[in-house]
Amino acid sequence: MTPDPPAAPETGHENRYAQPSFGGGPQPANPVRDHAAASPSKTVLADDAGPGSDRQVGSAGRRAASLTTRDALEADLATAVRHAARMRQAFYVLVLLVALVGQVTGAVATLGVPVVVAVPALAALELGGVVVMANADVRRRLGEQAIGSRLLSTAIAAGAVTFNWAAHPAHLVGGFYAGMSALGYLVWLMHAGNQRRDRLRATGDLPPTPPSYEVISHWIRHPLITSRARSIAKADNLDLYESLNAARDAIARQQRDAAIAKVLHRKIRAAVDPTTADIAVQVYDLNEIAARLAATADYHGLTTLLAADLAPKRIATVHSVRRRRRWCRRKRPNDASPAPQPTPSPPQAPATSATHTPGDNRQEPNPEPEENPEPTPSSHQQTADSRDAGPPETVSPDDPAVADLAGASENAKDVAGDDANQETNDGDQDAASDANDGEDSEVPQGTAQAVAYWLNKEPNLDPELLAEKIGKSLRSVYRYLPPDYPRRPGIARRRTRHQPDPARRASRSE
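^ thats the sequence. predicted structure below, dont judge the formating
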């Protein structure tokens, strides 16, 4: 069984706190401890200096107290290491004895080997396993892998465990002896691995142990910063808060360098080729560029610019203007005045009194006008009725009513003449002035609402101009016009019942 190496755990703290080893030998110089030893004399001199040096005295006292506490912790750790080594040696001896007893009793009970022969033979087997394990540990200390020795030691331990389990008829007893053999081998593996890691940290082949970061405050709330701080603490041997500050600075510097590199690459690529821009980004020192930018920054001008935007008068003015705009947008659709009703023109005389049917020489009378016509609803009522009634039914292009409407619009263009053109020009000028005033943004999106909106503003607006303003076809505009709105000059709209075409009537009569 190999002896414990001196000062195994302490070597991991040697780089961080510069403490000496506790295993004997030459002790390295410790300037921190030397400074602490010399600090009492300096403190006495500071007491004689006068009341102005109280702050220096307090800082020196706190430094001496922290160094004394750290020395006490290191001494306590060295004592714990020595106690653990002694207990570990006693554990190894007891485990070997228990495993040996199990193997001897199993060999005597199962194989019938005499005790005088079984004890030295099995002791040699146990000692051989210890020798192989020690040889593997030594070769690994020298930097080798020692795969053969490690495999052989594993095979010997597995054989001892299996023999203790199978050699006893009572499996509980066999399991106890087998468990003790496996426990001893596993404890030795863990101890050998700890010694090897401490040795690698002492030689610089393994990073030092990082600080212990909090689970909620560090790992859960700031996982990226904590991971970066852990890596920095391993490389630079920093403590908890120093590594966190260094990680924040590194992340901020990385973001700054990325922004500078992006702008620099774009500027150079605009002047030359992209390859030259890539070379410049890789060659130029971004930290130097950032330092010069910070040195030449006009902080006074930036502060003045921000102060102008944060002035109380400007904030109050902008806030009041925004509130007034929102209030006006909510109020204007409700305060719109009703459109004046245009004067109805005399109704159009019917062209023929009857319709001739070529099938049976019968005449169908045209519908007579109503004697008591209902009052004409206003534009608001028409808009509400059209809104409640839903979308209008699809009208076929071959419908006579649609054809009459289209002919009426064409006749209106021909008869109006110069007066209609003059009214159209006036309407265009009014629409342009309304667009300049910013009122077009308040035009509703629906066809019925848009027709009602423009008729409220211009009651005598031509249907063609109305269709251009709302971006719809003339047929769509005619659907939502009031019933008293003139389709052609001097002629009001008159609703007629749907009449089938002559060909359809002839087919029905036959």
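Residues 392 and 411 are 26 Å apart (CA to CA).
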